[in-house]
Amino acid sequence: MNTLDNLIFPNEFFLDEVRGGFFVSETMKHFWAAQLKVLSEIDRICRAHDINWYADCGTLLGTVRHKGFIPWDDDIDIAMLREDYEAFRHYAKNELPQGYYLLSAMDNDEFRLPFGRVANSHAVRTNKEFLRENYGCAFVAGVDIFPLDRVYTDSQKEEERKRRAAYVLDTFKGAESGKLSGNSLQEAVERIENDNGIQIDRNDLDRQLLILFDDICKECTDEMADEIASMYEWAPENKAKYPKAFYESFVDLPFESTLLRVPAKYEEVLETYYGDYRTVVKGTAVHDYPVYRAQETEFREKTGVNPGRFSFAKSTWKPADKRKTIKDTHNEMYDLLEGLHEKIDVLERAGRHEECISLYGTCQNAAVSIGETLEARFKNAMDVISSLEQYCETIYEVSCLWNSETILCLNEHIKMARQKTNDLYDSNGKDILFLPCRAKWWNTMRDVFAAAVSNPRNTISVIPIPYFYFDCAGDIQNGRTDSEFFAGNNEVRGYLTGFTDYKLEKRHPDVIVIQVPYDGYGRALTTSNMLFSKELRKYTDELCYVPCFDPEPPFSSLDVANAALSDLVEQSAVFSADRVIVGSSGLRTYYIDKLVQLTGENNKEYWDDRIRVKDDVSWCIQH
Fold first, then answer.
1. 162 and 220 share one domain
2. pTM: predicted TM-score of the whole model, two decimal places
3. What is the mean pLDDT of residues 82-97?
4. Which of 256, 396, 434, 608 has the largest CB neighbor count within 10 A?
């Protein structure tokens, strides 16, 4: 376990993941890491000056209950006793790294929150140096710092202080949101001035209210208190008040790949704040999730793309036309050959033999192409291949001596080859190629594989594909495969092959099943360009995308899973694939609703046809 001054994240940390049924995107993973980087800088200053800090709120709960981030949490909160908070502000102004910002109403004219924050930038940045320093995160990342202030033992005095603090906070929120304005706002400010014996500058009202709130929080001295509180919650909500003894010492507990400092009496703190903190309550958030979405939206509106992930562009998208099968293509080629015979017949009868030479070659090449595909796909294709070879020989012979009976002879060869070709397709099942990636993702593909294998007429092949991790700057690292896992897996061992033997372009399988959706747009993992979904669809009748993850669908419209899952749906492979196979009917509903939202209500039937669940795979196991 590494300490904050030596943060190290394995490549796997940055991958999309399902934690406790909740989907955590790779973008969120990079954001988590960037926040821990900010925390490491805070910790460095604190250690240098003997300043204490403690994981707070959701970060404390995540540390104790999850040994890391709560899956649906997206920020880091820490607390400091008031004296430590003021000392940190004093030193941080000069000791934070270049490009970092210390934010509070007292330190920044534009910061409008009643607590402190340290941020690593002021805007989204995508240059390699910034990404390398911040673990691949382009967004502004920060850590919120909540001062813990003393609470009067004199309950009447505390209630009076709380009333003033809560009223100032409510007035600030009303003024900032616009819900309080005009005469109502003027009356509220005059009341605050009377209550606190001060004059407030109306030209800098929001900031002055926050500074006043901070001053009220600091009124109680140590000798007047046995308890402390985060006044931001204590004053308006009667929450976050603790005995001072809870924060007299600290311990370090595991958090992701590092250690975080928590109050030694962390259980008592959590019970005071949450009650039964061990019971997981999913899908809740105190702010819009994810917290970086506004930054992402602003960046996309300026540049047209999301920083670090696929960006759907409605203006350039259109529903895919229904695709022809390879059987249909071969029948069209037979039609073409019959048409060429007629053209050759006309030219030869007119004595224009020289013009026919290239047409004879076209006929032979088309027949060879059909034969190569059939040979690659079917073990029992020799009969039709023999017919096509006879056709090619006949073409060669008649090219030197064309007569009135020749076209009938050639068309008879084509008729026979066409019939045998169609019989071959009709008597066999589907030719299905599975392209699994990481061994840990096989479980999501297993059900589709089992369904395909259950039809003995199908021809099944499995090729584990190579994958590559990105470093934090976005450069590709050495590739790897999980071939050893699949070679040792009894389910797939008998179906394994490689691209050298498979001859993908010639074979053109009925179905290719993939599970890597990124097509080079992500910042954590990729595969070779030839295996991108938009490339693979050229070599199959149906491209089937099985997402690597089966998260739980949102349980309500308020569940933050609604926002989290949008990154799983907005992937290149979803728009390239002919079918998307998800793990549950609830997920299917979510996918369809999200895709209709992205593409327009008129496309609901289109997505309703393309999004399927794993127990409905008849389309991929039957001709």
1. yes
2. 0.92
3. 97
4. 434
What is d(CA 31, CA 286) in angstroms, rounded to the nearest whole number? 18
Give CA separation, 34 vs 97, 119, 136, in Å: 14, 10, 8
Residue 462, strand partner residues: 434, 496
Q: Which helix (H) or strand (E) element contains residue 468?
A: strand 467-470
Domain membership flag for residue 46: yes
Question: Do the bridges between strand 431-435 and strand 459-462 make them parallel or antiparallel, or are there none, so unpaired?
Answer: parallel
Q: Report the distance separating Cα 320 and Cα 576, nearest Å.
A: 9
Tell me the per-residue pLDDT of 393-449, one tens digit each, with 9 for 90 and over.
Answer: 999 999 888 888 899 999 999 999 999 999 999 888 899 999 999 999 999 999 999
User: Quick one: angle between helices 406-427 and 382-398, nearest 10?
Assistant: 160
Sign of CA dihedral 398, 403, 407, 410: negative
C-beta atoms surrounding 178 within 10 Å: 8
In this structure, the answer to whether residues 175 and 219 fall within a common structural domain is: yes
In terms of domains, do 444 and 567 share one?
Answer: yes
For residue 139, the one-letter residue type is F
Tell me if 262 is assigned to some domain: yes
Q: Token digits for 403? A: 């007569």
Domain that holds residue 78: 4-303
Q: How far is CA 278 from the centre of its chain?
A: 28
Residue 463 counted as domain residue: yes
Dihedral angle computed from the Cα positions of residues 17, 23, 29 and 31, in that order, rounded to the nearest 10 degrees = 170
Q: H helices within 512-559, ranges in order? A: 533-536
243 vs 222: CA distance, rounded Å: 12
Confidence of residue 619 (pLDDT cuts 50, 70, 90): low
Give residue 195's pLDDT: 95
Q: Tell me, what's the pLDDT at 281? A: 85
By the 10 Å C-beta count (0-12 exposed, 13-18 middle, 19+ buried), 375 is classed as: middle
Render pLDDT for 196-234 as a digit per residue (tens, 0 to 9).
999 999 999 999 999 999 999 999 999 999 999 999 999
pLDDT tens across 125-138, in order?
999 999 999 999 99
- Decide if 111 contacts 102 (C-beta within 8 A): no
* Distance in angstroms (rounded) separating the CA atoms of residues 469 and 480: 9
Residues 132 and 271 occupy one common structural domain: yes
At residue 404, the pLDDT reads: 82
How far is it, in rounded angstroms, from Cα 525 to Cα 11? 9
Distance of CA 148 to the CA centre of its chain: 36
User: CA-CA distances (angstroms) from residue 497 to 381, 491, 543?
Assistant: 20, 14, 19
Residue 216 neighbours by CB under 8 Å, 6+ apart? 161, 164, 165, 168, 196, 231
Q: What is the DSSP string of 410-423?
A: HHHHHHHHHHHHHH
pLDDT over threshold 70, residue 283: no
Positive or negative: CA dihedral 435, 440, 444, 449: positive
Mark whether 288 and 330 lie in a shared domain.
Answer: no
Q: How far apart are CA 107 and CA 110, in angstroms?
A: 9
* Average of per-residue pLDDT across 88-109: 95
Identify the pLDDT of residue 616: 82
Q: Are 42 and 146 in contact (CB under 8 A)?
A: no
**Per-residue pLDDT band at 286 (split at 50, 70, 90):** low
**Distance from C-alpha of 522 to C-alpha of 337, rounded to nearest angstrom:** 45
Q: Identify which has the larger pLDDT, 419 or 282.
A: 419
Q: What is the CA radius of gyration of the chain?
A: 33
Q: Which residue has the tokens 């039937």?
A: 605
